[in-house]
Amino acid sequence: MHSKFSVTPTQKWPYSHSTLPCGDFCRFGVSVRSQVEHKHRFKLVCQSLGDRWKLSEIDTAAVQEQLSSWLFKTRVFLNEVASPLVKTGGGRSPDPGDPIDDEDVEDMFMGEQTIQSRTPNGYLSVASIASIEQFSRMNGMTGQQMQQIFKALVTESMHGDARNLVEYCCFRFLSRDNSEVHPCLKELAFQRLIFVTMLAWQSPYEEENDSYYEPLKRISFKTKLVYEEAFVRIAPAVSGLADRVTAHNLFKALAGDEGGVSFKTWSTYISEVLKVHEDRKVNQAQEFSHLSGENLLCIAPSRKRPVLKWTNNMAWPGKLTLTDKALYFEAIGLKEKKEVRRLDLTGRASRVEKVKVGPLGSGLFDSAVSVTSSDKSETWVLEFVDLAGEMRRDVWFAFISEVIALYKFMREYGPERSDPSVEYVYGASKGNERAITSAVNSITRLQALQFMRKLLDDPAKLVQFSYLQNAPYGDIVCQTLALNYWGGQLVTKYSDSGTRAMQKVKPYGISTDSSLHVVDLDGSVFLRKWMRSPSWATSASLAFWKSSLPVRKGVLLSKNLVVSDQTLVERAARICKQKYQVVEKTQATIDAAMIKGIPSNIDLFKELMLPLSIIAQNFEKLRHWEDPPLTVTFLVLAYTLIFRNMLSYIFPATLMAMGASMLLLKGLREQGRLGRSFGKVTIRDQPPSNTIQQILAVKQAMLDVESFLQKINVALLKVRNILVSGQPQVTTEVAVVLLSAATALLLIPFKYILSFVLFDLFTRELEFRRAMVKRFMALLKERWDTVPAAPVVVLPHDNEQAKSPPTQKKELKDKSKPETSPGSNLNNIHKN
């Protein structure tokens, strides 16, 4: 262990004949100046006792000057890192463009890099070096030590991927904190470090055309963009910034049209999230301290943009407050004491819907929501006035629906409140608190995005529990969340129906045996008796838990952080995302097919029915003997099938032909031999018309529809009259025809009847039968015209009193009579 130090000239970096790029990465990364400057630099290296010192070669003044320079620059850097993110006053977002001087950081980080930049897969990127080194020091070690520890923990294939090392260094530091919002987020340096880590995960190696072959080129991470895959992997690992379920939707909101998240957007987003938390704490302490047991979530002010509460077609402005359990509405009144009304959101019958409101019951304004606590409680109709559009209503709808969905999730997937088995699982008693914290963070993020004006078309996609209610595969994701919230280590032997809970449980999943429980990656147990939701018995649930049984590949740091692998929540969320994307694509095709205008829809219907129309036209050509050889061939084939008893094979053969045709078209499409436009339905747009022409066209279309419906109704009324014997003679004739047809079907084989029908169809247009067929059809038309329609009675419009049943009318009459007092009854008795 004895060693001595010598001063030797600085060696070159492992990069070939070029200098490292430097820029804003210098805050966390390593950089070197040109080789000319490095000729006169020195560094301290450790040598063994076997080496000899040459003290005469040591320049003490140069060594002292260099060490003083390093110490000064290190102190400057640490002061900058320790500077707070949010400064008091002004409410301004932090300026991401306030970097440390590049030249100072250059020298300092050259001495801080301990890992080798050259790897079997290529040179590490500057972002990877910066992330690994800084998180290693935050973990109390150097990058080289972390690299050695990680190499001892994983296999060679995992160690060879620099992305896994970046994850390990980052997740190891983040796993040390379990707070609601990570405390280091207040530091601008930590925000930059997380952003650099996402860039490092995104591009762990330098590209060939990057800066290693361009000396003195500086790279600024402020111009870099983080893409979805890296964002979804790293951002949810930081407490309070994102969750695994809606991280992809959060990325879409932050990225917008840029395609990625810039550091400016990232820093602004974090500052807004922190600002929402701080404002919530201040308002909770100052104005809502009386709300014991409830956490304040959001306030709709009464002055700037009031909320209107509609009651009996009257709107009253007021102040709306949302907590994690209820809604509070404080009306603006002339009295000094204002009445505050409360609407509970934790009940089973709680629901929220989007509605239209307006004066006198007219649905003129589409900017309101209807909130109901139970079937017996009053329904609140709240209008959110927003001159910029309807996003304010949609955001509040997402807020309220998230609270309602939270308690629905807790009732369906969590244990009952009075369940004593909660005490047998370590940490299960805090499961409700974890679920509430997750919902509160979702609402906080949505508020931050609202302030940034970066929202999706449907804000409900950005809140976790509300999103899972309508998402495909959402039940399975809820199961994994329940395991994450209420699962824990068994602290004692627990028995359920005489069987021990400490049974053999296969990790990562659920067994086919109904007595076994569900186990998470870290061994956390979710008891079988807590699985009260019917979704646990579905085939999709059983398939997911069975497929979640592979051998663990990564390094487990905590229940929510796994290096080089995915947690159960991540796996379920990934499948949910894929299925939701399929649903969105399908819905997009449906929306594109919803063409406006009656003429355009008629043209589309004709285009879709074109194949059937062509088949009908060709059959008519055969029936009219326009091509006699073809008609004869068809009849020979048809009679052969009939008299050879091959009719049972027609339907299966048709299905086989359709299936083979579909597979053939699939193969041709995969080969690209059908063209891109194959399968598209093309119609021509209607000619331009003014408003009057459109009104006349709509009127004519309505008249045509009315005439068509009248003809159908008349035919149905005639049939009804025949069935109910409204015309006895016609009813008798129809009944005789039906009985004769039934007798013929019973006595004569079906093939002879079918051959006779086919003969009749193909001989109607021939000369020897044409006149007879015309006379027969004229007779049928004459008899049909003489059949009267069933009578129709149209009653006048009834009011509500006329619609009331006789009992209600009797009650109304009793109420209308004057009430008699006991004294008047006594007087009547005396009179009698």
Q: What does this molecule look like?
A:
- The chain has 832 residues and is an alpha+beta fold.
- Among the domains are: 104-208 and 219-275, no CATH class; 296-493 and 516-579, PH-domain like; 618-669 and 693-786, no CATH class.
- The chain contains 28 helices and 18 strands.
- The strands form six sheets. Strands 5, 6, 7, 8, 9, 10, 11 and 12 form an eight-stranded antiparallel beta sheet that branches. The chain has a two-stranded antiparallel ribbon with strand order 1-2. The protein has a two-stranded antiparallel ribbon with strand order 3-4.
- α2 (60-81) crosses α3 (102-110).
- The radius of gyration is 39 Å and the shape is extended.
- The protein starts with a strand and ends with a helix.
- Mean pLDDT is 79; it is low at 1-55, 77-111, 211-218, 495-515 and 801-832.
- InterPro entries: DUF639.
- Residues 819-832 have a biased composition (Polar residues).
- The chain crosses the membrane at residues 646-665, 734-759.
